[in-house]
Specification:
Blueprint: E1 2-5, E2 11-13, H1 30-44, E3 55-59, E4 75-79, E5 84-87, E6 90-92, H2 99-104, E7 108-124, E8 132-136, E9 139-145, E10 150-157, H3 159-167, H4 170-182, H5 192-203, H6 205-209, E11 224-227, E12 232-241, E13 245-246, E14 249-251, E15 257-258, H7 266-286, H8 294-322, H9 327-342, H10 344-355
Parallel strand pairs: 1-8, 6-14
Antiparallel strand pairs: 1-2, 3-4, 4-5, 7-10, 7-11, 7-12, 8-9, 9-10, 12-15, 13-14
Helix pairs in contact: 5-9, 7-8
Length: 358
């Protein structure tokens, strides 16, 4: 992965070798992931699919139910075709505008970033396995590798520019994308900041021993040659639910929290939620506990809220730093890029945290 600033004074290049891993991560199409998950669930032979279906209502019982009225103590899900399902636990995994969250009465806090992400798939002039991200004054531009010579674009910009990008011809969009990613690319030769930090590293034995390898030098990104899908967009915001769980309900993923996509951590946080809730439910089953009771589910909330809030604070801080176009801050930002790039142990810690292995 290579990240750099539009000022061109600093960059960071991460490689899997930095953490002794085969890869840093994967870019997987949503339909492929959903298909694989569904296939795996079908293989268990114990899962009933009701799909397609629309949830019209969810009624949650009071937590004061007793064994004598066990049926009334279940959550009731009303479907669009009139069917009503009763269950011990409803998991709200229905996105940032979660209907389950609203019907459970959970409040949220957050704010709009006044930014919009434009997404599409493009063809590039050479096959690559690097995630490229350039921070522009209006937001980050990311080019993410897929298979062969195809890549995904996630272009964060102003709502007005996003509308213009969506309305462009393919030819004009490709030209605009290449300009955003490649024009004046890279650290300027002879940058005094890069030179100063490099001198410190070279003249400090310990730092010199942990500096970047030749493989981590700045590389030019591939050139975009064609946009092959429709361009879609969505507004960016930060949102956090006041509660993740209650009697008969638990929220996971974007239903519980949304973050800025600049580091690609939204789906990773959701995976972490799902894994944690699965462990808690499995433990509840193993000890004969009611899996929809809040006292059991609160274990999941305690574990995930701490992790999610830490990542949300980091991403929100990055967004605010890179959304500010101010000379002294730009210089400090570039110096920070170079410092992290040159200090192997610090870079390793950052990568490990982003990969969820810390």
């Amino acid at each position: 992965m290579q990240v750099w600033d539009y000022e061109g004074l600093g960059y960071i290049r991460y490689t899997a070798d930095d953490v002794g891993a085969p890869v840093l991560g994967y870019v997987v199409e949503n339909k492929v992931l959903v298909g694989a998950l569904r296939s795996r669930l079908q293989d268990t032979g114990s899962v009933e699919f009701i799909c397609p279906a629309q949830v019209k209502s969810v009624l949650f019982p009071s937590p004061s139910g007793s064994d004598s009225d066990a049926r009334q103590d279940l959550a009731e899900v009303g479907l669009g075709d009139g069917r009503r399902l009763r269950t011990r636990l409803v998991v709200g995994a229905d996105g940032g505008k979660s209907a389950v969250r609203a019907m459970a009465g959970f409040q949220t806090r957050g704010w709009e970033y006044q930014q919009t992400a434009v997404i599409c798939t493009v063809k590039v002039n050479s096959k690559h396995s690097t995630a490229w991200q350039r921070f522009l004054p209006t937001g980050p531009f990311a080019l993410l590798p897929m298979n062969n010579t195809y890549s995904n674009i996630v272009w964060t910009t102003t709502p007005e520019t996003a509308n213009a990008l969506k309305g462009m011809s393919n030819e004009h969009f490709v030209a605009a994308a290449n300009k955003a990613l490649i024009e004046d690319f890279g650290p300027k030769p002879g940058s005094k900041i890069a030179e100063a930090i490099g001198n410190v590293v070279a003249n400090t034995p310990l730092l010199g021993a942990i500096g970047p390898s030749a493989a981590e030098q700045f590389q030019e990104p591939p050139r975009i040659v064609e946009c092959v899908t429709e361009r879609l967009s969505f507004p960016l915001s930060l949102m956090h639910a006041s509660m993740y769980v209650g009697h008969r309900v638990a929220l996971v993923g974007d239903a519980a929290h949304t973050v800025h996509p600049l580091a690609g951590q939204g789906v990773n946080l959701g995976f972490g939620d799902a894994a944690s809730l699965s462990r808690v439910v499995q433990r509840g089953v193993s000890i004969g506990h009611d899996i929809g009771q809040a006292d059991l589910l609160e274990e999941y909330e305690r574990e995930r809220k701490k992790t999610n809030m830490a990542m949300m604070a980091i991403l929100d801080g990055f967004q605010k730093i890179y959304a500010t176009d101010l000379g002294p801050l730009n210089v400090a930002r570039s110096a920070g890029f170079n410092a992290v790039h040159l200090l192997g142990p610090l870079k390793k810690q950052i990568i490990s945290y982003a990969m969820g292995v810390l």
